[in-house]
Design a protein that fits this description.
This protein has 228 residues and is of the alpha/beta class. It has eight helices and five strands, in the order βαβαβααβααβαα. It has a single domain, classed as 3-Layer(aba) Sandwich (Rossmann fold).
Length: 228
């Protein structure tokens, strides 16, 4: 089986992305980050998802993006609550972490080179959170082009680096429907940006609202417990 690196946050999207990588015949090596996020509880979910779906390896590495701040996820800034659907996707939200996907993909590229993989999976989505500049197809294409200029595989012709984004044009409901077909246990995942100390989801942040909306549209009950 070909090896691939999968960026695994422990959220709904990355869990589905992992299941898709396995379905497509890859041996997945998961990579997660403790980057100073206020919702660090997601790493417990990443471990549970990796164990449930099966991975060939799982690395959790540390990056302190809280040293820079600039985001509600890495700074003392309130996480927006109870936004309407239009405002969630209209502008770049304060939950955007500056350069996060560029940093994550750079680490995944290094991991891929070490294990001899030419493929990387990332669960970015351009429909929900369309305001995130590092979730757009043109960004992914540009990073892929850079990766093939900056790696041994790209230069020596051992194989081109491919960034897979299977969820990029899917709605949250479509993602949930596909993941359910693949046997993803969404009770293990975590999406909330501002959970309680015990990890219970708030039910009011943008991530919770989009997740709940997706389950409602697909006609399923979200298996997570919410604080309300």
């Amino acid at each position: 089986m070909k090896k691939t690196v999968i960026l695994l946050s422990g959220g709904l999207d990355s869990a589905t992305c992992l299941a898709l990588a396995r379905e497509e015949g890859f041996s997945p090596y998961a990579l997660s980050f403790r980057y100073g996020q206020r919702h660090e509880f997601e790493l417990d979910s990443a471990k549970a998802v990796a164990s449930s779906l099966g991975v060939s390896g799982h690395v959790i590495t540390n990056i302190d993006l809280r040293a820079f701040g600039g985001s509600a996820l890495t700074d003392d800034i309130d996480v927006p609550k109870d936004s309407d659907e239009f405002s969630i996707t209209e502008d770049i939200p304060i939950t955007y972490v500056p350069a996060r996907n560029t940093i994550f993909l750079s680490f995944s590229l290094a991991y891929a080179e070490v294990i001899g993989a030419n493929d990387i999976y990332i669960g970015v989505n351009a429909l929900d959170y369309s305001g995130y500049p590092d979730c757009r197809p043109e960004y992914i294409n540009s990073f892929q082009n850079m990766a093939n200029l900056a790696t041994r595989a790209g230069v020596e012709g051992d194989g081109s680096i491919i960034i897979h984004t299977p969820l990029i044009n899917m709605t949250k409901a479509e993602i949930i429907r596909k993941g359910t077909q693949l046997g993803v246990d969404y009770s293990l995942t975590h999406s909330c940006y501002d959970p309680n100390v015990d990890g219970t989801s708030c039910g009011h942040c943008d991530a919770c609202l989009l997740r709940l909306k997706g389950f409602k549209e697909v006609g399923l009950t979200d298996p997570l417990t919410y604080s309300d």
